[in-house]
Amino acid sequence: MRRCSYKAVLLCLALLCGVGFAEAQSQKDLEAQRARLTREINETSRLLETSSKSREAALDRLVVLQRQIVQREELVVLLRLQIAHADSSVGRTTRVLSSMQADVDTLSAEYGRMARAALREGFLNDRLAFLITSESFSEALARTRYLRQYDENRGRQLELIQLTREVLQNKVDKLDDIRAEKEKLLGAELTQQNILEESLADKNELLRSLANDEDRLRKELKEQTRDKNQLDRAIGDVITRSNESRDKERLERERIEAKALVAERNRSADKATKTVVEPAKPKAAVVTSENYGTALSQDFIKNRGKLPWPVEGGFISKPYGERAHPTLSKVKVRNNGVDIRTDPGSTVKAIFEGEVVGLQAVPGYNYMVILQHGDYFSVYSNLVDVRVKAGARVGTADVIGAVATNATTNTSELHFEVWKERQTQNPAAWLKR
């Protein structure tokens, strides 16, 4: 067999391994996405089960159901993508099997030709006679090299045939696995489609019931708007007091520094009459609340998009900014933060180190805790079992309290905000995705 044939077959095998690795990586990514979506669906299913099915809880259930419908739609799309990927893999693997079978046939045919050529030369069965019948020493040496080359070629040929057959068998096994996985994916897609249809029917039923309950919803919205305005005022008051305190502290520090500068100049004037001038001692860096706050602000900014969620699980049920009311037509609601629907009694933790500058009860929001991170503030509302005190410094992930549960609807939502001085920020942009 020619050397180029060996190289061609070996290169083909290497490429097949490379393609197989790339397919495995792609499939691994899809499986990771599917696992993530499955976890999220299980979480929203759990929240649906724990929430009340009362008339008052209909709007809260609608929010969770809409979220789950989106998740299931994403999962169906992902399953279809995996099925398409499986179809593509089946096609590629089938073509590879045909090519490899052709390689095995070619290698076997060349091996047969090599054996027949050896028989014609008369050395396959009696090598010693083949060497002894040489007419000269140089011919015997040439025949020896020929036999060695023949043995090497035959060994390589047998090894390559065996390797190709092993890879071929692996591909056959993989093809069976892909086909079995495709059948599972088709079954999973059908299941999700059926559940999705049921969820859409439940959603429509909830929308019909809410449409007949518009007066109650408008009354609830009015109460929620009143509570929200009280929360906004409370947050604004805390931030204003904090800024005033920082300004007062800065003015006092500047007064003390100015007084110290005058005293230092007087001492320098007295020392000027002396012949020996002592070198000035370096001043130790003074840690103040201002430069501590500046460093904290810079660190807070550096962690934008990487800050931990204030609760372990859940999803954003009410996003930041202005949006249309879920059921009331031509009604818009505004949110200065985000509401995170989570499990009852979930622990609430600080997203970053800071100082507790606000802690008070707010109607409609149970307890509110405000942490200051330099120029930034994080607000945690609808808390019970508060674990911190005003003026205390907390670290990242320190426990602040627990999320309160609505006794009527049996739902638990943390209202979370981020401010830069007196300007609201979108908390979702600061939290880790």
Task: Give an account of the 3D structure.
There is one protein chain. The chain has 433 residues and is of the alpha+beta class. It has 2 domains: 3-211, Helix Hairpins (Orthogonal Bundle), CATH 1.10.287; 215-268 and 304-430, Distorted Sandwich (Glucose Permease (Domain IIA)), CATH 2.70.70.10. 62% of the residues lie in helices and 15% in strands. The protein contains 7 helices and 12 strands. Strands 1, 4, 5, 6, 7, 8, 9, 10, 11 and 12 form a 10-stranded antiparallel beta sheet that branches. A two-stranded antiparallel ribbon has the order 2-3. The longest helix has 75 residues, at 137-211. The relative contact order is 0.10.
Give a nutshell description of this structure.
With 433 residues, the protein is an alpha+beta fold.
SSE-based structural type: alpha+beta
> How many separate structural domains?
2
Helix content: 55-70%
Overall outline: elongated
Regarding quaternary structure, what we see is single chain
Distance from first to last alpha carbon:
58 Å
Count of extended strands: 12
Spatial extent as radius of gyration: 38 Å
Largest sheet: 10 strands, antiparallel
Average pLDDT works out at 81
Helix and strand pattern: HHHHHHEEEEEEEEEEEEH
Q: What is the CATH third-level topology name of the largest domain? A: Helix Hairpins
Features:
Glucose Permease (Domain IIA); elongated; 7 helices; two-stranded antiparallel ribbon; alpha+beta; 433 residues; 2 domains; Helix Hairpins; 15% strand
List the helices and strands and how they pair.
Elements: H1 3-50, H2 58-121, H3 127-132, H4 137-211, H5 214-271, H6 289-302, E1 315-318, E2 321-324, E3 332-335, E4 338-342, E5 347-349, E6 354-361, E7 367-373, E8 376-384, E9 393-394, E10 399-403, E11 412-420, E12 423-425, H7 427-430
Antiparallel strand pairs: 1-4, 2-3, 4-11, 5-10, 6-7, 6-9, 7-8, 8-10, 8-11, 11-12
Helix pairs in contact: 1-2, 1-4, 2-4
